[in-house]
Amino acid sequence: MVGRYVSYGASPRGLQALIRGARVWCAVRGGTAVSTEDVQRVALVALRHRVILNFEGEAQQIKVDSLVEDLIKQVATPAMEAA
């Protein structure tokens, strides 16, 4: 879906926002180390406005949120690999 509907993805600053947001969320929940769930929790907020759809994505009325959510589900986590 990304190759078909996305014109520009998140920049290196998007990754920085994702990492910093995960660190903050970890601290808010009282954790001492960032977990996969922390990264997943802040992914929409950090990446939503950084992904630019191409003409086809706009024409099909694709939602960036749904793209990011689908990507989060597809990324293998350590817990998934252990199972």
Question: Could you characterize what this model shows?
Answer:
- With 83 residues, this protein is mainly alpha-helical.
- The protein has helices spanning 2-5, 12-28, 36-47, 55-59, 64-74, 78-82; strands spanning 6-8, 52-53.
- The longest helix is centred in the N-terminal third of the chain and has 17 residues, at 12-28.
- It is globular.
- The mean pLDDT is 92.
Topology:
Elements: H1 2-5, E1 6-8, H2 12-28, H3 36-47, E2 52-53, H4 55-59, H5 64-74, H6 78-82
Antiparallel strand pairs: 1-2
> In total, how many beta strands?
2
Q: What's the number of helices?
A: 6
Q: Looking across the biggest beta sheet, what order are the strands in?
A: 1-2
The mean pLDDT is 92
Measured by DSSP, the beta-strand proportion falls in: 5-15%
| Rg from Cα | 14 Å
| Biggest sheet architecture | 2 strands, antiparallel
What coarse outline follows from CA principal-axis ratios?
A: globular
In the predicted model, the low-confidence regions spanning at least 5 consecutive residues are: none
Secondary-structure element order, as H and E?
HEHHEHHH
Query: Class by helix and strand content?
Result: mainly alpha
**Fraction in helix:** 55-70%
Distance between the termini: 27 Å
